[in-house]
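Async update (no meeting this week)

Hi team, since we skipped the sync, here's where things stand on the single-chain job. The sequence we agreed to prioritize is pasted below, unchanged from the tracker. I ran it this morning and attached the output directly underneath so nobody has to dig for it. Comments welcome in thread, and please keep replies under the output.
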Amino acid sequence: MSTEDIKHIVKQKYGQAALQAQSGRSSCCATSSTLKECCDPITSNLYSAQESDEVPEAAMRASLGCGNPTALTEIKPGETVLDLGSGGGIDVLLSAKRVGPTGKAYGLDMTNEMLKLARENQKKAGVENAEFLKGEIENIPLPDNSVDVIISNCVINLSGDKDRVFREAFRVLKPGGRLAVSDVVVIGEVPAAIRKSVELWVGCVAGALSDSDYTTKLASAGFEQIGIEPTRIYDIEDARQFLAGQGIDVNVIAPQVAGKIMSAFVRAYKPAQRGCCAPSCECTETIR
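Output:
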């Protein structure tokens, strides 16, 4: 599949998810007692009941993430946060509450339906220090060195050009800024049949990087202090669930991928620069 094909497929899938959320049906993510329709093991049970109560129910319904980046990284008052692939806005709204009135939370999404839903959720939540931008995560519409924290929830694996995503993330982060994302990561090799599946690509599996590739690509973009922390490793029964109905022999393939696919929290930092150390201000020595 080409990069443009992948974008088209992802737009369709996530546009449908937004409309589904608006109609009152869940895309499966929370533990709220009002959301009973949870489905696959990747997107289910990611947020606490308390977090579910902090945002509109439609934001929870629209979540198709694989983790909870706002719970796994410290977001400080006054910081600027950017969520890559913000969907219905759940992680942006939670971040906005954490940074407080002196901070700002941006959400970036390429899907019109999701942007409309996110802005409606923002109004319902009464959050003023958030802004939802239309754009692609490969071309972030923000200036250089403008963001303290980048979060993302199972979106980077959907991109057909992950190297560019990481370069763009590095560009917009301030020196010393941090990347803190939840994503699906592969341990070792998975069968070719999975990589070729369109549905499994939009379902966060086919496009997932291996742990070693993830680290290599982040380092190539300039990031340091890279860490990958498993948050959920999928067993054979999990594999049966997300492989079902994909035109794949589940009985053959599920045992081959059990334990090889995980949700993970990925951390990385942009090197921090010292203050100018010469009258000409040409010194760019970094703190290692």
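Quick observations from my side:
The chain has one domain: 3-267.
The chain has a mean pLDDT of 77.
Reply here if anything looks off.
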